[in-house]
# Entry
Amino acid sequence: MKSCSCIILLVSLLLTVSAQVLKKAYATVPQLVESAGYPVEKHYAHTSDGYILQVYRIPHGKGTNQMDGEKKAIVLFHGLIGGCDNFIIMGPRKSLAYYLADAGYDVWLANLRGNFYTSHRTLTRKDPAFWKYSFDEHGKYDAPAIIDKILEVTGLSRVLYIGHSMGFTTLLTMLAQRPEYNDKLIAGVGLAPAAYLNNIQRFVHFVTNNIKLHKILHELDVGAIKIPRKYLKALSKYCTSEKNLDHCLNFVYSIVGDDYGQHDLNMSNVMIMRIQPASTQQILHYAKLAETGVLTSWEDGFEGRVKPYNLSNIRTPVSLWYGENDKLTATPEILRLARELNETGALHSVRPVPQWKKFNHLDFVYAKDVGKILNTPLVAHVKELFDQFDKRQVK
# Structure
């Protein structure tokens, strides 16, 4: 009888965990935030070229009202095939947005054009023109529109910027193209910042020179990489089975770096089901960076002119955080970016994620212990940046 009770208890626990995972896989951002016990607001930023970007706000921590005091705003920008939910998906005791809100900050979650939280004034997702963009446009239009919306709503004159991977590429392209936005930022923090990708140059060279993938995509007029939900479900089912789990992890880790110790098995479904669309041009633009070894604008396309972004326009103090086992944005490439930013006077600091040598590209969002390993020291660093550089003038 005792044995039977234990089995029933175990089954009940597994069903509860399964239900929670399923909820996270399909829940909206407000549902995720509210179920965690935090306040949430939805705002819309409109770009000058017609895109409408949902921006979510967590104005204060759980059970407090920090808005009654002095406001300090932080905006979080996601990476490729991601969305603003990257910063809340692991929950209150792990995800960065909750850590910052509990530390008293006014937290804003940005979405860059193309993911499911964005639309266009006149174009639909079926229109090829909807997908004609890369991080050129993220920096030129999206980030400025989002920052202006935050400053309009809060009445502040500056905000602190944190970007993961492509989210930091966006900061670089924004300040290079629109240097006036230096005056609207307190500081910038790059988490696994994507700028130089020489470490994947061989792979890119193979698929573009041998397979001619970029020409195939152009001839087929493939404007975006969009995985229908039914295929995401099938992939999720395949990769979470005991038989195939190692195959899927090995494939992902061949790209981002292996870290079996920080993989949360319960989050595998969530990670897959919340994959966002990306424009083909975005991906080919990163391929151009890898192929040329230059942080270049898109110009005439993948085979077009190489025109480096003008990093000397960056005056915002910048901190770079990297994972020592990150294969995608590898340590030598981070240090190269750091040297260039140091030469222009923009670099504040560059550091590996402490405590965990196996930290990889996805760990910045999905590590099992991301709260303890990354977000605790990161929040302390954010405080240092505000203390040193925040000389806000409230409108």
Q: What stands out?
A: Residues 2-26 form the longest helix (25 residues).
